[in-house]
Amino acid sequence: MKLFTTCLAFASHLGVPRALHDIPRNIIHDETQICGLLKPGISQEDAVNVSGFWDHQGIAFAKINLSLQLDPASDVERPLLKLVTLMQKVLWGDHVSVRIINDEESDALARCFDTTSDGDVLLMIDETAKVNKGVKQNILNNAEQHTQQSIAFPFDDTNLISKALKLVRRDNEKYLVLTKKRVPPGSGLGGGSADAAYVLKSLGDSISNEDCLKLGSDVAFLASHDNIAVISGFGEEITPMDDVYYKSHVHILIPDEPVSTREVFYNVRERLKEGIFNPGAMPLSVEETCKSAKDFCSFKLFNALEQCISNRRVRLLLEILQEYFPKYKFRMSGSGCSFFLLGADDTHVIRIRELYGHPLTVVKTRFKHVGDEKAEFSYL
Questions:
Q1: Which molecular function terms from Gene Ontology are attached (predicted)?
Q2: pLDDT tens digit sequence for 152-186
């Protein structure tokens, strides 16, 4: 009864939806409130400092694709296409916390939050940057904003975190996973895949690349200890590389235009069928990709998926980069919508945002190298 009363008070404090509210109740605002809920005998201020509350905590580092090629001979009827891509982790990503919960804690959480079919509780704190300086836009009310977040970050079995938990579950354990969400869904930066990868690394003893492939083609790399690697096959073959010599910053430009990976690859398949898909001049060989990337100063960035983007504003950003900033190294990451720039300064990047004229988040970070375990980033 005590836990139930605490839960009702907690729900009231958070504004957890009743019949007339639209805000998803698994989106919270303060980590200490969760600690206070499961440890009702102490204050919320002290709860966050309780030693060992979370069993695992860390950064789910995002990635960028320095090159991405698809095999034009791929079987378009298969669910995945063969690729060769050079992936690099960056010092920015979601913060993920995992707690193994007992039956009493599970019951208390289930009274306050939606659960997966396995009884796990997935919570989110929205830490995506609200950086839209100088741009006129329609502001959504809180309920609409949170509803959109809930669609993009589901709290049921469709979330990649839930699918990852199914792969590593031991003895009917149940889990509480809190994601401080920084990487926007549909941005081509592997945010959801990195979250799932962090869960696999934290709770799994040994997860095969084939199991990772069930979650996504970039999960195996993101779950590995490699900072940069050539990914080939359908995403299950990883060829690690030594860190490339690039110590400067990387700017990541994220339009407020999430791109559907499914739609992009539909366009790829249509182009392959019609014989108009351009695989690029770079070799599809893993060995050649590794060799050319070692001399990173002369390495040519490439992404074959850029030709398959139909989103008008994402294409506009690409055209601005091509027209006004040809000397910088830039490319789209993954299936979009994000672009990254190497060798640019803040002034030029801000100028890009002005020319673009639509909401654009800019993240300034670095490549992840050996020994880097903490996030290092800022927003412009």
A1: 4-(cytidine 5'-diphospho)-2-C-methyl-D-erythritol kinase activity; ATP binding
A2: 899 999 999 999 999 999 999 999 999 999 999 99
